[in-house]
Amino acid sequence: MNSELTVAVHCLLFLDSREDHMANSEQIACSVATHPARVRKVLSLLRRHDLVTTKEGAHGGYLLKAELSRVSLGDLYRIFAQGSLRPSWCSGSEHSSCAISSNIPAVMNEIYGGAERQVELYFDRLPLSEVKRLMEDSEYGKEEDSMSINNQDVWLFYAGSYAESGEPGIYLCELRRDTGEMRILHGFSDLVNPSFVAIDAKGLRLYAVSEQTEGRVAGFAIDPKDGTLAMLGGDKATLGADPCHLALQPGPERHLLVANYSSGHVNAFALEPDGAPGDMISHIRHEGSSVNEQRQESAHAHSAVPSLDGRFAFVSDLGTDQIVAYRLECGKLVKHGATDLPPGAGPRHFVIHPSERFAYGMNELNNTMTAYAFDPEEGRLEAIQHVSSLPDDFRGENYPADIHFSPDGRFVYGSNRGHDSIVRFRIDPKTGRLDDPAWTSAGGSWPRNFAVLDDYVLVANQYSGNIAALRRDSESGRLLPTEQSLRIAKPSCVEPLPAGLAAEMLK
């Protein structure tokens, strides 16, 4: 790992430990036992990214400007160490006569590239305040690492739902890992139809749509002590109808993407310093139709998913049978291209594999899941496979909905509304193709959204009004029904809290 990252973490933690949050470069260099010139280089970059500032005078130095809870290891990783895991392999070349030698560089760089993305995603979940706490735990000899999901007995998750004004719509819930039992901890009732919610990478902000004819979005601060929500400012109009999906752009630009189903609009909102949705930077309306006259009479933007580096956004349009790709340029959505689906497919939800070699989409109208080859540099997709989301012998009405990966990226899951099941596919790591489908009852009626944890899948069953807990075998990826169910009126979304923040709340 790049050692500048370690120095950067030390600099910020050292400044935080000072009573006045200030020190000069010599003091910091002495504390970290390195050369002052190296510390000054790191501090210069920290200053450029607005994490520290300087104070002149006899007692001047570097002053900590950012709150540790608002800075993640991922932020520092992108500044100081991104690319450090990609080695320059020299044990062979493409001209080598030995097949083993000539293939080592490409294969190893592919492995390390995927590992680096996993490191970045993990670091994004670790605010420096948590790093500080872990260091304090280590100092006092604590052996448990509460950041490890394997050591966590209770998981916390938020559930979004369809709710009228004044009714609870967003719930904080807990799942006991040993039994699968769930309970509601508290609810929030100031938003109509918060049908889709998303948590930022640090677990400190929650965003929700208000799915209604005059659509709105809202941001909330998550209290790290108990998970209660406080709205940040007021909600914002999307200037579109029935927003049904939102996502946060990764990286330093910080924009909120929203898909409005009924009107076909896509939005990008800037975020204020406190995380509240700010100015609307982009407001684009899709145009077009397709072969299903009842459902595809016009464009219907159903999800807006950013690429893992935040440079692109992919909008699944159910009405036009396209995945529309946009470049994100300072919040502006600039059309980059489109990938056509078979007529009548109705693309709904979309996910990019952690390896960034493949992507997958759930198609609502023709009961299929599509596998794509993905070029992350060019932001381009190519459909390579369409597979049925249903067993061959099913003849009823069905509408696929959501799609998610297993934590290790080996499996992809989709929900079937009508068949009322979760389908699991195995992903071929070389080709990205799907095989070995297996179906499990969703534990209720009309499974809309779901979340995949290490050994559970939590399913929001809208019509039966419950969240079902399914056991998951991490080796085979297969699911098993349980008797555990949580009653919530018209649940539509499940969003787990990062393990570290959940561990803090449960203390």
TrEMBL record:
Pfam families according to UniProt: Lactonase, Rrf2
InterPro entries linked: Cycloisomerase_2, Haem_d1_sf, Lactonase_7-beta_prop, Tscrpt_reg_Rrf2, WD40/YVTN_repeat-like_dom_sf, WH-like_DNA-bd_sf, WH_DNA-bd_sf
Annotated family: Belongs to the cycloisomerase 2 family.
Protein name: Beta-propeller fold lactonase family protein
Organism: Paenibacillus timonensis
